[in-house]
Design goal:
heterodimer, A: 500 residues, alpha/beta, Rossmann fold, 3 domains, 6-stranded mixed β-sheet, 22 strands, 33% helix, globular, B: 317 residues, mainly alpha, two-stranded antiparallel ribbon, 2 strands, 1% strand, ABC_transp_permease (chain B), cell membrane (chain B), ABC transporter permease (chain B), transmembrane (chain B)
Chain lengths: 500, 317
């Protein structure tokens, strides 16, 4: 380390949000002239680190050094001026503007813009970087890969010394990844460096000189790519400590198959997704962000359109055109984004619990039977131990865990047999998590069939009877949970399909 | 908590109504007397009915711009049914109200099944209704002079004293609207859709169908407003109608219903409509020109909505 100049140093940086320690005593060294791979599970703290580097957040403690000098950016613009360009996973592009307009947004040079001058500047930049773009194309008409190129072009037009890329290949195929890597290599000089955030081990092996692993907001270690086997990186990533106090019961072969999904494909992402769900089973869905797990759930309940594939419910093939039909078939979907897709935040707990079953249980001649609804809601508040002063409390005043229970209650009142949980414990504190786990187990014991989508591997391994692993819209493996290990799941989760 | 706050909102609107009322009572000696108060109520009827229907639409976070000219088209239809075709009055009235429902149904179909934004769908309907009213009537008013039974719907006195039937109609319509909004699943879904349309859909509710029903309901009120305005004027005036929709929307907004959806009440809307008529009446009595009345009304809307927003900001820390 002494023989090379450090381009970026992160020393003991911490950052907390109310209730969460996002980063704790974080370390990171980037040498000039290298590509550093940065890996960690979802929620490991990568995004927080990015936001600190781009000046969106301020660190609670610790220091940054960039090119030998203390680095304290006050805004994204300031970070750019200091020489750090960051390409976020979510594009910041205006689809209705042209490539040239996007590349130089905010830098048009004067109030009156000359389209011709802008196009000329863009053409020059595109030429210099060998980008497969034309200045006058509308960004909205470009493929995702080319949009990524626009982002890169924009980032490099600032002539940064450090380029940070967050999951740059999430939507790219192999050929496009090669083009991207070529661009990165051309950008690298002895004065510049790249931080390359990715989940994909095969890519990191090709592009990264060293790999730094972080977990739960902490620095775990750094390895030279050439001398390290990827399974070692994976086990650094997932960690060893596991608190498995309730081991899964194992495959329930004897149980009746309730739901069969075969060859499910959608226009956007899903390719031939096939799985079956048994009575009384918790079927875990593992995979990395963007693997298509939520999309499977949304397709099954009819929230998104299916291109091809069949859904068979108790031996009978059914068509589900919308969530109302799914609900009639007693299939309930509990979204990962409770506030957006699950709750009527401004309405009372009772109204939320009664919503799905309102028309069939709590009305006569169109008139709402409020008393009956509140009484039923109160029962579920008791049995699920929802902490609320009364069923008249407004839903937004409940904690995350209790809000989740309200959504669960809504589907239980509707008498659903199949419950699809998308990240059931996201944003819920540890104690409430245990309660949700107990509830899921009870539901399965009582004969409900549960699909549990989760990005937390320990949760998947602990709760599931069987595990479906997805990567890039495909099912890459189905494992018996009693034999599955984190490494195995990670292996399937990063198993990219052969070039599409 | 919500209930308390909603009540507070109504109290605020009600308080403003009282304040404005007291102001005019003191400022002008000819404001506070039985016949003037009755005439205020009488002049609230049409805007009030339109506002009641559109309250449902606005709570779903939609908007209905077609109610003004839609009302005029309904008035013309009423003339065609009763005057030109000689249908009995009750049947003509029923037909007119149902025709209003049809206008709403088309709006609802365009919004929920074709996915056209409510603003655009009802703007288009506003133009279509305006044009059709002129086409059907051949651009001439239709007079109900020979239909005393029809004009009595508005100006008759069923309650004996000097109390026009129109006010009675508004009262009954308000009660019906309040019951539907507060006590039925249609009302419950109206709030649900406005609170969170996606969550409502994912809860297994056919949002499209219910929105269709809500726009249709608003249309029925439009139809009734068409009956009431033509009965009051003893004629269907095909060239009018524009501007009523904005007054009605203003009444809903002053009454505390949020254009963002999910919140609102029938009582609030009624109070909003009354505030508008009291203002118009009082300013007229004080001989303030019509032009200035609009300026003042505009200012009242701004103040009402800003006060509502400021209060919400305080309560959500």
């Amino acid at each position: 380390m002494d023989d090379t100049e450090l381009l970026l140093e992160v020393r003991g940086v911490s950052k907390s949000f109310p209730g969460v320690k996002a980063l704790e005593d974080m370390h990171l060294d980037l040498r000039a002239g290298e590509v550093l791979g940065l890996v960690g599970e979802n929620g490991a703290g990568k995004s927080t680190l990015m936001k600190l580097l781009s000046g969106i957040y301020d660190a609670d403690a610790g220091e940054f050094f960039f090119a030998g000098a203390p680095y304290e950016p006050s805004s994204a613009k300031h970070a750019l001026e200091l020489g750090i360009s960051i390409i976020h996973q979510e594009f910041n592009l205006m689809p209705d503007l042209t490539v040239a307009q996007n590349l130089f947004i905010g830098r048009e040079g004067g109030f009156f813009t000359s389209e011709r001058a802008l196009n000329a500047r863009a053409a020059e930049l595109i030429e210099r970087l060998h980008l497969p773009l034309r200045p006058k194309q509308l960004v909205g008409d470009l493929t995702v890969a080319k949009q990524q190129m626009v982002e890169i072009g924009k980032a490099l037009s600032f002539e940064p010394r450090l380029l940070i890329m967050d999951e740059p290949t999430a939507a790219l195929n192999d050929a496009e990844v090669d083009v991207l890597h070529e661009l990165i290599r051309r950008f690298l000089t002895p004065e510049t460096g790249v931080i390359y955030i990715s989940h994909r081990m095969d890519e990191l092996r090709r592009i990264a000189d060293r790999i730094t692993v972080i977990r739960d907001g902490r620095y775990v270690g750094t390895r030279n790519t050439a001398q390290t086997a990827m399974p070692e990186v994976i086990s650094m990533m997932v960690g060893r400590e596991l608190n498995l106090d309730a081991q899964p019961v194992g495959v329930r072969e004897d149980r009746e198959v309730v739901l069969q999904v075969a060859g499910l494909s959608t226009k956007d992402l899903l390719r031939e997704v096939t799985f079956e769900l048994r009575k009384g089973e918790i079927l875990g869905f593992a995979g990395l962000m963007g693997a298509g797990r939520t999309e499977v759930a949304r397709a099954v309940v009819g929230a998104d359109r299916i291109d091809s594939g069949t859904i068979t419910l108790r031996g009978r093939e059914i068509k589900i055109a919308n969530p109302a039909e799914a609900a009639r078939h007693r299939i309930g979907y509990l979204s990962e984004d409770r506030k957006r897709y699950g709750l009527l935040l401004e309405q009372e707990v009772g109204a939320n619990i009664g919503l799905s079953a309102l028309a069939e249980r709590f009305q006569s001649w169109g008139f709402v039977r409020d008393r009956a609804m509140r009484a039923t809601a109160a029962e579920y508040v008791d049995t699920l131990r929802i902490k609320t002063p009364s069923v008249k409390q407004t839903a937004k005043n409940l904690s995350g865990g209790n809000q989740q229970k309200v959504v669960i209650a809504k589907w239980l009142v509707k008498d659903c047999d199949i419950l699809i949980f998308d990240e059931p414990t996201r944003g819920i504190d540890v104690g409430a998590k245990e309660e949700i786990y107990r509830l899921l187990n009870q539901l399965a014991e009582s004969g409900k069939s549960i699909v549990m989508i989760s990005s937390e591997l320990p949760e998947i391994l602990r709760m599931s009877h069987r595990i479906v692993v997805m990567c890039e819209g495909r099912v890459t493996g189905t494992l018996d949970a009693s034999e599955a290990t984190q490494e195995q799941v990670m292996h399937y989760a990063t198993l990219r399909a052969v070039a599409a | 908590m919500t209930a308390v706050r909603d009540r507070l909102q109504q109290f605020l609107a009600f308080g403003s109504l009282i304040a404005i009322f007291l102001f005019f009572s003191i400022a002008s000696s000819s404001f506070l007397n039985y016949s003037n108060v009755t005439s205020i109520l009488f002049s609230t009827v049409v805007i009030g009915l339109l506002a009641l229907g559109t309250t449902f639409v606005i709570i779903t976070s939609g908007i209905d711009l077609s109610i003004g000219t839609g009302m005029t088209l309904c008035a013309v239809i009423s003339g065609v049914l009763i005057v030109n075709s000689g249908l009995p009055v009750w049947l003509g009235v029923l037909g007119t109200i149902l025709f209003g429902g049809l206008i709403g149904l088309v709006n609802g179909f365009n919004v929920s099944f074709l996915g056209i934004p409510p603003f655009i769908a009802t703007l288009a309907m506003m133009l279509v209704a305006q044009g059709l009213a002129l086409v059907i009537s051949d651009s001439t008013p239709i007079y109900f002079n020979d239909e005393p039974g029809y004009t009595a719907i508005s100006t008759g006195h069923l309650l004996g004293v000097d109390f026009p039937n129109a006010v009675l109609v508004l009262g009954v319509a308000t009660v019906i609207a309040a019951v539907v909004l507060n006590k039925t699943i249609l009302g419950r879904y109206t709030y649900s859709i406005g609170s969170n349309e996606e969550a409502t859909a994912l809860s297994g509710i056919s949002v499209r169908r219910w929105k269709l029903a809500i726009y249709t309901l608003a249309g029925l009120f439009t139809g009734l407003a068409g009956v009431m305005i033509s009965a009051r004027l003893a004629s269907a005036q095909p060239g009018t109608g524009i501007g009523y929709e904005l007054q009605a929307i203003a009444a809903v907004v002053i009454g505390g219903t949020s254009l963002a959806g999910g919140k609102g009440s029938i009582v609030g809307t009624l109070i909003g409509a009354l505030i508008i008529s009291v203002l118009n009446n009082g300013l007229q009595i004080m001989s303030i020109p019509q032009e200035w009345q609009n300026v003042i009304l505009g200012a009242v809307i701004l103040v009402a909505v800003y006060a509502d927003m400021a209060r919400k900001r305080r309560s959500t820390v």
